[in-house]
Amino acid sequence: MASDLVRLARELPKAELHLHIEGTLEPELMFQLARRNGVKLPYESVDEVRRAYVFSNLQSFLDIYYAGCGVLLREQDFYDLTWAYLERASADGVRHAEIFFDPQTHTDRGVAFETVITGIHRAVHDARDRLNITSGLILCFLRHLSGDAAMHTLSEALPYAEWLIGVGLDSSEVGNPPRKFRDVYARARDVGLLPVAHAGEEGPPEYISDALDVLQVKRIDHGVRCLEDARLVGRLVEEQVPLTVCPLSNVKLRVFPDLKQHNLKRMLDRGLLVTVNSDDPAYFGGYVGENFSQTAQALMLNAGDLTRLARNSFQAAFLPQDQKQKYLHEITSVAGQSSVKTIS
Ligand code: ADE
Ligand code: ZN
Fold first, then answer.
1. How many CA atoms does the CB half-sphere of 264 hold within 13 Å?
2. pLDDT one digit per residue (tens) for the chain, 344 residues
3. Kind of pairing, strands 273-276 and 134-142?
4. CA gap 68, 33 in Å, rounded
5. Contact 325, 311 (CB under 8 A)
6. Ligand 1 pocket: which of 22, 55, 61, 253 to mutate (most atoms <8 Å of CB)?
7. Are 317 and 311 in contact (CB under 8 A)?
8. Is the separation of the CB atoms in 229 and 199 below 8 Å?
9. Looking at ligand 1, which atom is closest to the CA of residue 20?
10. Helix 2-11 and helix 321-337, axial crossing angle in degrees, nearest 10
11. Ligand 1 test: best mutation among 85, 102, 138, 198, most atoms within 8 Å of CB?
12. Residue 179's CB: how many other CB atoms inside 10 A?
């Protein structure tokens, strides 16, 4: 039974909506790129890197994550990073990925915006034909930096606007409320970019309301702290605001002490439009298939829950309605052929 659920988790067509491309840098590729670019790493081996991935909170992770990005220098590096992710995602049943990237992490080290985006875009383009996976790119502003710095980054991105679907907000949440980025989000919306933002990961429920009211976001990334505010939950259910939840990330960053105590099942049962995603899979111990299957086992999700999560991922995706319908039909067909009983 458990292995049937794991197989269903992998085979269900899925959209991944919360994935930082820099967070897919596996230690093996980190060493390969360090050698290729003559960068000295503060680790002797891949095992030593993996042993360093013990985090006490979001900031303790971000410090290591930004340091790891130091090996990404050339267009080919961004291509290789993105291609490796898309290969893994495709093997996990991901048919559509909406990928975050953090340009400021690179431009602040002297890497040109163009280098970053052309490498990522080229891999995304190749994967559409060769891996049968479509992607959209979401440019994230680093919230520990200023609103003016975000505005400068947006202006650098405008020549590439056709390669982007949206803008997001990530990095250190507490103390950096959404309203700090009011102006840059207004500008991004004006040029047709779809707004999303991390909120309610470590930050309070008010950051979720602020992201909706001030930034006018279409999705909330994480949002797990919404359950602390019953009125907010009522609103999120009523408006069917998608929440891109990342269970393994939440455990690694100590938002929940272990997977059994994660609130995903309660969110689903409350009628929230929840999706399951991998966030920074190279750092958190699993890609989206693992997030589905480990969460299913820990929270005793059934096939109906998994199918609903897969359906939610396409409902929440920035895809045209006809493409969503095509994937929803495929899900119905895969779930129907599964030997695991689907109760939904
Ligand atoms: N950047 C990469 N992963 C992140 C996360 N989980 N929260 C905020 N910023 C991030
Ligand atoms: Zn994230």
1. 33
2. 478 889 999 999 999 999 999 999 999 999 999 999 999 999 999 999 999 999 999 999 999 999 999 999 999 999 999 999 999 999 999 999 999 999 999 999 999 999 999 999 999 999 999 999 999 999 999 999 999 999 999 999 999 999 999 999 999 999 999 999 999 999 999 999 999 999 999 999 999 999 999 999 999 999 999 999 999 999 999 999 999 999 999 999 999 999 999 999 999 999 999 999 999 999 999 999 999 999 999 999 999 999 999 999 999 999 999 999 999 999 999 998 887 765 44
3. unpaired
4. 11
5. no
6. 61
7. no
8. no
9. 2
10. 160
11. 198
12. 15
The CA distance from 96 to 319, in Å, is 9
The CA 44 to ligand 2 mean position distance, Å, reads 28
- Does residue 248's CB lie within 6 angstroms of at least one atom of ligand 1? no
| Domain boundaries, given as residue ranges, for the chain | 3-336
Q: Which residues pair with 136 in a beta bridge?
A: 98
Q: Could you give the angle at which helices 205-213 and 230-238 cross, rounded to 10 degrees?
A: 40
| Whole-number Cα distances in Å, 46 to 21, 26, 31, 60, 89 | 19, 9, 7, 19, 22
Strand ranges in 32-128 using DSSP code E only, listed in sequence order: 94-101
- Residue in the structure block whose two tokens are 């589905």: 292
Question: How many residues can be counted in the chain?
Answer: 344
State both tokens at 271: 């009628």
To the question of pTM greater than 0.85 for the whole model, the response is yes
Q: Which CATH entry fits the domain spanning 3-336: 3.20.20.140, 3.10.560.10, 3.40.50.150, 3.40.50.300?
A: 3.20.20.140
Write the single-letter amino acid at 45.
Answer: S
The pair of structure tokens assigned to 300 is 């005793």
CA 86 – CA 254 distance, rounded (Å): 27
Identify the bridge partners of residue 142 per DSSP, sorted by sequence position: 170
DSSP string, 259-276: GGG-SHHHHHHTT-EEEE
